[in-house]
Design a protein that fits this description.
- It is a single chain.
- By secondary structure, the protein is an all-alpha fold.
- It has a domain of 116 residues.
- 74% of the residues lie in helices and 1% in strands.
- It contains 24 helices and two strands.
- Strands 1-2 form a two-stranded antiparallel ribbon.
- A hairpin with a 7-residue loop joins strand 1 and strand 2.
- Helix 11 packs antiparallel against helix 12 and helix 22 packs antiparallel against helix 23.
- The chain is elongated and about 105 Å long.
- The relative contact order is 0.03.
């Protein structure tokens, strides 16, 4: 209800209140009763225009009365209240008083939770996330991660995967900072990451399914922050994870959800050559085949040098992948195994599948280039023609450098190496099959056309 309407209604009804008056806090109502309800509406109507105009000094007294006497009256008390308190904190020069004011601001957020925590749009998780953000900003180096870790942990336990994304991100920041201070916090940090990563991934998938581009962008930013913090945390060393998860895998061998979480985490942090990953994958696959579980079986088969089995399960993993990057990697791993068995044509086929799935993937081009280079002398006994194969080799490395910054530096070095071994001008001139500026069809399994330069 608009403030003017409320004031009019109260003004018209003043006689009915009589002399009896109680504040909202005293009566347990939104506005209070009698003269106190009129005071409440009046104070709100006075502080709001001042606050909107940025005149927090004149707004403060009226706001504080409304906040103290009728805190359930209107969300404007909190929307403007945090800005008013922020102004007051930033204009205070005494350090002790400033900290006390920061505590007061935290209480403003708590009071909003009490009266408006069930708001459909800005519920408790949203409010506490902003509380934590303001605490971190205002306290600076003095911010205690245990404090906001506790606030946000309570919210995450209550809201689960519906927890506001900022809250998940700040919770992981708090967890990370505790890890930096205490290495014994590692197992808790890993569990926090597994939980928060799962929640934000679920939200991101929902936003993508709904076609909500704005929300997808927002969630991607927070997810990147969470994943980036984890990647740089040093908590994901494989030996630690093996020690941590070996017993957990056995305890969870009949629990598909728990097994999938373990497999997903170990895959994400590239710990796919440890026994915990193999065991969790095998147990999970028995309960319900999935891409991650099939990948684990494939990895174990690679370790045992059972390449036929490995290729079978990498193929199965690729077929079940929903993520293009992961699917492309599965195809690439098949290509690597085929290359190891000297099945170069088939290996190239899977490299091409990989780049069709993920056009930004450079490793398959690198592998094709290496295979071409390996084949040069077996295709041509003539050393000059064998050198001409390097045009195709370089072309693959150039593609890798163009599409994938992760391999660009290595690709550039290989390009320089093979350029030095291309046919010389004299060799081209003296060789009837080659002509500068003209196309040359490379024979054998390569079957590509290059331009002699």
């Amino acid at each position: 209800m608009k403030v003017k309407v409320l004031m009019l209604a109260l003004g018209c009804s003043m006689m009915s209140f009589g002399a009896y008056a109680q504040t909202g806090v005293q009566s347990g109502t939104r506005f209070g009763s009698g003269q106190d309800s009129i005071n409440c509406i009046t104070n709100i109507s006075l502080f709001v225009p001042y606050a909107k105009a940025g005149n927090f000094k004149d707004a403060y007294e009226f706001w504080y009365k409304a906040y103290s006497e009728c805190p359930a009256a209107h969300k404007d008390i909190y929307l403007h209240g945090v800005r008013i308190m922020d102004w007051k904190i930033n204009t205070e020069t005494d350090a002790a008083k400033k900290e006390a004011l920061i505590d007061d601001l935290m209480k403003v957020y708590d009071t909003r939770v009490k009266y408006f925590g069930n708001d459909k749009k800005y519920a408790k998780d949203w409010i506490v996330s902003r509380k934590a953000a303001d605490y971190i900003r205002l306290m600076g180096d003095k911010a205690d991660p245990k404090v906001y870790y506790g606030w946000l942990g309570e919210v995450i336990n209550e809201y689960g995967e519906k927890t506001e994304a900022m809250g998940l991100s700040l919770y992981m920041m708090a967890s990370h900072r505790q890890l930096l201070a205490d290495p014994n916090f590692k197992s808790t940090y890993l569990e926090d990451y597994l939980k928060c990563s799962k929640y934000i991934s679920t939200q991101l998938a929902a936003a993508q399914a709904a076609g909500n581009a704005k929300e997808e962008k927002n969630l991607t930013t927070y997810k990147s922050a969470i994943d980036g913090g984890f990647a740089g945390s040093g908590a994901a060393d494989c030996e630690t994870l093996q020690n941590m998860y070996a017993s957990k895998v056995e305890a969870a061998k009949g629990n598909l959800e728990a097994l999938n979480e373990i497999v997903s985490l170990l895959r994400k942090v590239r710990c796919q050559e440890i026994e915990a990953f193999y065991a969790a994958s095998a147990y999970a696959y028995e309960l319900q085949p999935s891409a991650d579980a099939a990948l684990g079986i494939a990895k174990q088969a690679v370790k045992a040098k059972d390449y036929e089995k490995a290729i079978k399960y990498f193929e199965e993993a690729a077929n079940m992948e929903s993520d293009a990057v992961s699917k492309a990697e599965d195809y690439y791993l098949i290509a690597v195994l085929l290359y190891e068995q000297n099945n170069l044509s088939k290996a190239r086929e899977y490299c091409r599948k990989a780049v069709e799935t993920n056009p930004d993937y450079g490793n398959p081009y690198i592998l094709i280039g290496n295979m071409y280079a390996k084949s040069a002398k077996s295709i041509y006994s003539d050393p000059v023609l064998a050198k001409a194969v390097y045009y195709a080799v370089i072309a693959q490395f150039e593609k890798a450098r163009q599409v994938d910054q992760n391999v660009a530096e290595d690709a550039a070095k290989m390009i320089a190496t093979y350029r030095a071994h291309l046919p010389s001008t004299e060799e081209v001139f003296m060789h009837p099959d080659l002509e500068k500026g003209k196309a040359f069809r490379i024979g054998g399994w390569i079957g590509e056309t290059v331009t002699i330069r």
